[in-house]
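Notes to self after the call with IL:
- keep both proteins in one doc
- input above output, always
- annotate only the second one for now

Protein 1:
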Amino acid sequence: MDILYMGYFCNEKLFNQLVRAGSKGSHARQQLEMKLLDGFIEVLGDNRLEIVSYLPLFESVKRSARGGEVYHGIKIHYLWCDKHKISSLIHAFRKNLSYIRHWCKGKKEKVVLSYSTNIIHVVPLFLLRKIYKFKVVSLCSEVSTFRRKENMNLFGYINRKVTSFLDNGFDGYILLSEYMNEVINNRKKPYIVMEGVAKEPRSLEGLKKEHAVLYAGGLSEDNGIKILLDGFVQAEIPRLQLWICGEGALEKTVQAYVNNYKNIRFFGIISNEQVQKLEQEAELLAAPRYSKNEFTKYSFPSKTIEYMSSGTPTVLTRLKGIPKEYFSYAYVLEDESAKGVCALLKRVFQESEQERKELGQKAKEFVLERKNGQVQAQKVLDFLLKYKNK
C-alpha cells in the first residue's frame, strides 16, 4: 500500500525559521505530525510513504529549502502559499493537482491521509479520487465549526464555512475524540479514535528540578489562565514559582501579574525544545482549561500526552474529549475556580516529593507504552489497510 501524507509538517529547523519570520504555525500540530510520521517510518520500514506539506510563503525562508527536504529518508515536497494572494492560492492549487496526478501513476493500492481540512489539499483530492481510484482519509485534529472566531475577517469566515462543509466529505476518519464523529461524519463513514501520540522527551543531563508550576499553551480565557493566576497568588506557597509560556488574548493580563508578583515568569513564545526543558524542570504542569464549554468534547488536548510524557505530574480538568483512563494518572481540578486552584496547589505541595514523582512516572509509563508513535502509527495503518478497498 502506498500512502500520500498531506499536511503541514516540516523539519524542526525550518519550522522555527517560519515562526521567527511571523508564521502562526502551531507547535502542537508540528509535534503531532512529527510523532505520527516517525511512527509511520518505523512501522513501514520501506519507501511507500510520500509527504506533501503546505507552508506559508516567506521568501527568505523558502530560499533555504527551495528543493524540499528529506526527513529520515522520506522526501518532503513543500507547497509554498501566500493565502492572502489569489494568484498564490491558484498556483498552489494547480501545483497540488499536478503532484497528486504524478503520485498516482503506477500505484495500485493507494490511500491519502490528509491532516485536517486544508482546502488546497482537500479539494484537489476530492476532484481526483474517483478518476485515480484512491481513498481520502482525514486525520482530524479539530472540528472546523468550533475554530476560534476572534478577529476573524471575511476570508476567515468563508474559509471556515467551506472547511466545515468539506469535513463531511472524507472516505474515513482518524479522530482525536470520539465526540468528533457526531459532527463531522454525517455520512457514517468508518473511523477510529487515536487521541494523540507520545514520545520520550530528550534526556537532559544535569537537569535540576525547580520549585515551579508550568503552563504552556494558548493564553485565552477558556484555557483557565485567569483562575490559574489568581489561584496561584492566593495559595501563597513559599518559594513556589509560576511559569507561563505561549501567546494569546490574555498576554497583557499575564504581563500585569508578572509586574506585580516576582514569583510569576512569562516566557512568551519559545521553541518546543525549550518548552520540553521547562516541562522536565518544573514540579507540576497545569492544564486548567474549562470543561463546561461544549466544544471541549470535540478535541483531545495535545498537551495532555506531552505533559505526561515528561514524567512531571500534571493537573487536568475533566474535559469531555479526554477518556476517563487518563484521569487516573493526574491530579484533577474538580473546582474550576481560583479557589479550586488554590486548594489543589496546597494539597499537591503538601504531598511528599516522592508521591508527586511516582504519579508523574506512572503517567509517563502509561502514555509511552500505550500511545507511542509505533503503536499509534500501526493503529492508523491497520485502519487504512483494512479500508482502502472498501
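Protein 2 (the one to annotate):
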Amino acid sequence: MWAMNTNQPSLFQTITKWFVPIAAIIAFAAWMYISPEGALGKLDAIGYAVCHRIDARSFQIDDRQLPLCARCTGEFYAAGIALLFQLFVSGKRSKLPSRGIIAVLILFFLAFGIDGGNSYLYLLKQTSGGAFEGIPNLYIPNNTLRLFTGSGMGIALAAVLYPIVNQSIWRELDERPALEWKNFSVLVALVILVNLLILTDSLFVLYPIAYLSALGTLALLVLVFTILWIIIMKQDNTFDHPRQLWLPLASGLTLALLLVLSIDLLRLQLTGTWSGFPGLSG
C-alpha cells in the first residue's frame, strides 16, 4: 500500500497561494487610487492612518509637512532603522534583550508617555480651555523633544518586536539576545545622530526621513499582521529559510494595506481633508 504524502498541500493552502497575491494587488491598487498624487502624497496617506498630522507639530520640506508629525516621524523612522539594524547584526536571534537593556527601553517608553501627555494637555488648553486652564504643563512642548522621545519609543518597539517575530517564525531558534549592549549602544548612537541631522532642516535629510518614517510605519504593520497570519494558519516555528515567508509576508502586507485604506477612507469621510484634524494646531 502506498503511504499518503503528508507534504502534499491542502486545497485551502493552494487556494490561499492564489488568493493572497490577488488580494494584495487589489488592496494596493485601491489604496493608490484614493491616496493623494505624487510620491510624498502616497507617503502622506500612510501617515494619515496613524498620525494626527498637525502642521505646527511636524517638520517641513519647503513649507510642506512631512507625512507624520515630529513624534511619529521619530517613532517610525527609528523603528524602521532598528528593524533593519537587527536584521543585519542579529539574524535569527530570538531572545529578548537583557534586563538592563529592557530597563533602558522602559525609560524610553516613560519619556514617550510623559512628553506625549504633556503635549496633549498643552493642545487641549489651546483648543478647549475651560477646566484644562488650571492644570499646569510640566514644560512647553516642542518638536525637538517630540522627535527624541518618539525615536526612543521606536527603538523600544523594534527591540521587542524583532525577537518575537523570530520566535514565531523559525524552526531552529538562535537563543542569543537579539540586542546586546554593544549593538544596542551603536543603534542608539545612530538614531541620535540622525535626529541631530533632522534638526538641521536639510532637504537632503528630510526627504529620506519622509520615506523612512512612512515605510517604517508600514513595515511594523506588515510584521504584526504577518505574525497574526502565521498564528491563525498554525504555522508557528515551521520555516527554515526566508524565501518560504513570501506568502505570510504577502498576507501581512494585504492586511496592513486594508487597515490603512479603511482608516484613510473613514478619516477622509469625517474630516474632508488629507491634512491634520480640522481645528487643531499648536
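Annotation: The chain has one domain: 60-271. Strands lie at 60-61, 64-65, 93-95, 174-177.
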